[in-house]
Amino acid sequence: MTVTEEWVRRAQSGATDPRSPDDHGALRRAVGRNLTAYGFLCAALICFALFSWYPMIREIVLSFQQNNFVDPGEWVGFDNFRTVVADPAFRSAWLNTAAFSGLALVIGYAVPFVLAVVLNELKHAKAYLRFVVYLPVMLPPAVAVLLFKWFYDPGAGLFNQALDAVHLPALSWLDSTSTALVSLVIVSTWMNLGTGTLIYLAALQSIPGDLYESAELDGAGLLKRVWHVTIPQTKLILLVMLLLQVVATMQVFIEPYLLTGGGPENATVTVAYLMYQYAFNFGDFGGGSALGLMLMIVLLVFSTIYLRVSREEAER
Amino acid sequence: MRTLVSPLALRTPHGRIIYWTILTVTVVGFTGAFVFPFYWMVSGALKSPDELAQIPPSFFPKSVDFSVYKEAWDQLQLGVFLKNTAVYAGGAWLLTLAVDVSAAYALSKLRPVLGKLVLGAMLATLMIPPMVLLLPTYLVAKDLPILHLDLLNTPWAIWLPAAANGFFVFLLKRFFDSIPKELLEAAEIDGASPLRILWSIVLPVSRPIIGVVSILSVVTVWKDFVWPLLVLPETDKMSISVGIASLSAQMPQNVLIASLVIASLPTILVFFVFQRSIMAGLTAGSLKG
């Protein structure tokens, strides 16, 4: 409601507030209320302006400028984009990022849902299982990643020793172009699994029991009940989580930064990591921002779909 | 409540066997996947570098000697890193609450002109992940517009961006919206100022949501890696994650692992204590976005 509308409303029904006998008082109070409101808002406005809104504009400006941050930036059109696209690592970075997101979906998307369905059926050890599955999420990601770096050690590392114990050949994990990216996906899945599991669990608990009851009376077996009741009932949250996971995994940075440094042979360079390298290793903020802008546009597509879906969910 | 499997099916001998099998598999599987790595970490720290390199590895450390933890604490100056991180997380928490609670209160209860636009602009920031704005945001912290302050290596570089959190404003505003108008109008007629109403009426009834926002904000800052990596390059100013990561290459393996154990204790302790609020926070925003 705008001020004028409210002012008119108050003026028309003058008797609602004993302290505003005339229009004048109402107007003065409306102005006062707005001043107070913006007083309460100003700190947030400053924080958002500095660290959210302005950087969006700055990113666009930076990506079209050549900048040494001493002189004013020089407009160079699409030069930064051309430089970045011509970089052989550019193609690898996008392919790896897409592969990382895709693999994370293959390995990690169905697992939390299945775990949640199982957990929802169990009547024992509930608190323990829920606590334990969320434990890795509470670890600082850097700690989890460094821990796995040790597990991946080709010699005495936990994983190769475990493979050895069951008489399987050792893998070179982070050191081979064929397994490095998968190794990153495994860490990332391990440390994020708990979130999805608990969110699905909450969604499963709101499914009305009589739906299962009547499906069973109709002769639907276990898998049919999952297919015809559980999945349709959680369809929207499944979709929301899918989009959130894609957006999250497309930004992958810490895993390549701490585990592989993008190697071997660019096998684990991601877009976010390349962006970081451009800015902080090559001192090229223009190229870095161009990459950031491209990633932003791709992620905006997913965020927009997410927004539509979650609105639908909220209206349900 | 009735779930996927009917209670009748569970009562049959056949159903019982399946149930207990699945339960056992789940408990063993979860313990193996999520608890065992922690055991391996804690016991690994107690092994000597020789024992760590030994093939096959020993399941239990040969000798239990906790001095490696002291070594890690001293060599990696973990005390300094932990204190830094506590200052960053604590300050971010206080500032976030002060800034976002007052913003949400203004948007929900005082409803100024253009309030909807402001809220929309704050929520719009949720569409763009901070990672893609990393470089321009870093440049802002390095040279604050207009004031030309350099925030690098100061806690403000963590605190100010942490307060610009659209999700928190959204959560708080939605909760404030549910507080009945009559409650506030009564106080207003008694002549209470907006600040007084916020402090004595809105805040006390909003304890649950403030708890959720508090824990989320502390844990987010505590776990963050990329941003502190960029804005706190000085070793003495580093947060625990960044500190350990940047010194990890020069440490003997067992000292590094001991430092990982120490670094993971605070958040896990927080999880033990605030499990309920943390899980509530998980579903607070994600279900009805």
UniProtKB/TrEMBL annotation, chain A:
TM region(s), chain numbering: 35-54, 98-119, 131-152, 180-203, 236-254, 285-307
Major location category of this protein: membrane
Recorded superkingdom: Bacteria
Membrane topology of the entry: Multi-pass membrane protein
Pfam family, one: BPD_transp_1
Domain ABC transmembrane type-1: 94-306
InterPro entries (alphabetical): ABC_transporter_permease, MetI-like, MetI-like_sf
Record key words, sorted: Cell membrane, Membrane, Transmembrane, Transmembrane helix, Transport
One GO cellular component term: plasma membrane
Places the protein is found: Cell membrane
Region (Disordered): 1-23
A GO biological-process term: transmembrane transport
Similarity remark: Belongs to the binding-protein-dependent transport system permease family.
Record's protein name: Sugar ABC transporter permease
Organism from which the protein derives: Kribbella soli
Automatic annotation (TrEMBL), chain B:
Subcellular location: Cell membrane
Gene Ontology cellular-component annotations: plasma membrane
Keywords attached to this entry: Cell membrane, Membrane, Transmembrane, Transmembrane helix, Transport
Coiled-coil region(s): none
Superkingdom of the source species: Bacteria
GO biological process per UniProt: transmembrane transport
InterPro entries: MetI-like, MetI-like_sf
Pfam families recorded: BPD_transp_1 (PF00528)
Record-annotated ABC transmembrane type-1 domain positions: 82-274
The protein's name in its UniProt record: Carbohydrate ABC transporter permease
